[in-house]
Design goal:
InterPro entries: DUF5641, Integrase_cat-core, Integrase_H2C2, RNaseH-like_sf, RNaseH_sf
Domain Integrase catalytic: 214-400
Number of helices: 17
GO molecular function: nucleic acid binding
Structural class: alpha+beta
Protein name: Integrase catalytic domain-containing protein
Strand content: 15-25%
Number of strands: 16
Shape: elongated
GO biological process, one term: DNA integration
Helix content: 25-40%
């Protein structure tokens, strides 16, 4: 008998008495609120009934059969109805009409041969229908037994749509407050909460100071990203080359270098070549090394081998600060990710062969660099009297790529002092236009406008992985938060079975607790 008995302690069995108008109905029903499964409650109740029969020597059977389960179900349904509709049942037993204020008045209820309350409807003459459909059992959606039944049907429907559960329940039961109860049960289901959990990123933060640092030399603050590999022809063999893109975070200009490999030394030399022509940056931002979205396998494999410490040390030699964004947070590097796509699109247009000579590739990348730097930063007006649209080349060359320098000067302007003033005035004019025309375009928040609950220590979360199915996302607990300057948490440290992970809020889906779903 021990092999099939549920693991229920003796304190779970409660002898319940329900008083109804001059009579006491004693029902040997375990406390339903201490059970989380309808089948478990049924089996426990069936065991109680078997025990009572054995004590009264009505049976010597110790195994639960279908008859015992049916008797247990009838007992539990009577118990739930006696607690939910005591006045209506008493009135029916005394053959009195129900009051108009009764919740069951329009259902014309009656008691069947087992003492269970059923609906007396208008479809009794329908052929080929079961008794449960013609005269369903009446239950109150607020009762704990009814919630266990809904939970049972919810699992049978494979945690599907609520309407599927409602349709199945209507084949046997008539439930008051059916849909609200089904929604409540579905919202409290842990598996459903995990399936529906999604990241709730905080309100979009303010732009960092390097994005707004005007009246500075271009590439004072820049972002770095890599793309490739690009095949080139060397003699009769093919080799791989990679592109290193530097973008000015303020004027949105780009500078492209070509490297033979993705070693730390190659990247440092590319940085030195760029700095020799553009000046050393004051602050460099780059990906963390493992979050190159859309990178090919070779690029992703090689970038993991970069020595971040060596890069920072080399930058510090020239008073340059190097900052790496958090792992799996490509949106933090949107300033250079978007330009990488622009460069790739332009390269597809100008690259006519699959594996050009290295000299051709370097030339094409230089032309693509000029094309990208010739793009308009602001709205392009069609009015002939309007000024030329501002481009990154205005800050690099003093003009766009295909127009002469702005202004007409005579021979009196050839003196060095006046030429310096002209250059300074042109630069100031471009920066004035940048502040008036381009800077206001950065004002609105295009997404993440709503305030969300910040992630907190102890939250149960799913680590979102866009390249994996939801069912294999890692679960973990937030053990540390990193608030930003505005106090909103945008990066968290998560403890998982595989170790400690650092992820942005956009890659973390919090699983609501049961008390939040009520």
């Amino acid at each position: 008998m021990e092999s099939f008995m549920p693991d229920v302690c003796s304190s779970q069995l409660e002898y319940v008495s329900t008083i109804q108008e001059h009579s006491v109905v004693d029902l040997p029903v375990p406390d339903p609120t201490r059970f989380s499964s309808w089948l478990r409650l049924l089996k426990t109740t069936a065991l109680v009934l078997i025990f009572i029969k054995r004590c009264r020597k009505f049976t010597s059977n110790c195994q639960i059969n279908c008859t015992d389960m049916e008797e247990a179900e009838q007992l539990l349904l009577r118990y739930a109805q006696l607690q939910s509709f005591p006045e209506e049942i008493a009135a029916i037993k005394n053959r009195k009409p129900l009051e108009r204020i009764s919740r069951l008045h329009i259902l014309a209820p009656y008691l069947d041969d087992y003492g269970i309350l059923r609906v007396s409807g208008r479809i009794d003459t329908a052929a080929d229908l079961f008794m449960e459909i013609k005269r369903p059992i009446i239950l109150d959606g607020r009762h704990s037994i009814w919630r266990l039944i809904v939970k049972h049907y919810h699992k049978k429907a494979a945690h599907g749509l609520n309407e599927m559960v409602v349709n199945e329940l209507k084949q046997k039961y008539w439930i008051l407050k059916l849909r609200p109860t089904v929604r409540t049960v579905a919202s409290s289901c842990m598996l459903c909460r995990m399936q529906k959990a999604k990241p709730e990123p905080p309100r979009m933060g303010d732009l960092p100071q390097p994005r707004l640092d005007h009246h500075q030399r271009p590439f004072t603050n820049c972002g770095v990203d890599l793309f490739g590999p690009l095949d080139v022809t060397i003699g009769r063999r093919r080799e791989k080359r990679y592109g290193v893109l530097f973008t000015c975070l303020t004027v949105r200009a780009v500078h492209i270098e070509v490297v033979n490999s993705l070693t730390t030394d190659s990247l440092i030399m590319a940085l030195r070549r760029m700095s020799a022509r553009r000046g050393w940056p004051k602050h460099i931002f780059s990906d963390n090394g493992t979050n190159l979205r859309g990178a090919k396998t070779e690029l992703l494999k090689s970038i993991k081998e970069l020595d971040e410490v060596a890069l920072k040390d080399q930058a510090l030699n020239f008073s340059t600060e190097w900052t790496f964004i958090p792992p799996s947070s490509p949106h933090w590097g949107g300033a250079w990710e978007r330009l990488i796509r622009t460069v790739k699109n332009a390269l597809k247009v100008v690259l006519k062969e699959r594996a050009p000579r290295e000299e051709v590739l370097i030339t094409l990348l230089a032309e693509v660099e000029n094309l990208v730097n010739s793009r308009a930063l602001t709205h392009v007006s069609v009015e002939p009297e309007s000024n030329e649209s501002l481009t990154p080349n205005h800050f690099l060359l003093g003009t766009s790529s295909n127009l002469p320098t702005i202004g007409v000067y005579d021979d009196s302007d050839i003196y060095l002092r006046k030429q310096w003033r002209i250059a300074q005035r042109l630069a100031d004019k471009f920066w004035e236009r940048w502040v008036k025309e381009f800077l206001p375009e950065l004002l609105p928040r295009r997404k993440w406008n709503r305030e969300q609950r910040s992630l907190q220590i102890g939250d149960l979360v799913l680590v979102v992985s866009p390249n994996e199915q939801r069912g294999i996302w890692q679960r973990g607990v937030v053990e540390r938060v990193f608030p930003g300057k505005d106090g909103r948490t945008r990066v968290v440290q998560i403890k998982t079975l595989s170790g400690i992970l650092v992820r942005p809020a956009t890659r973390v889906a919090r699983i609501p607790m049961e008390d939040e779903c009520r």
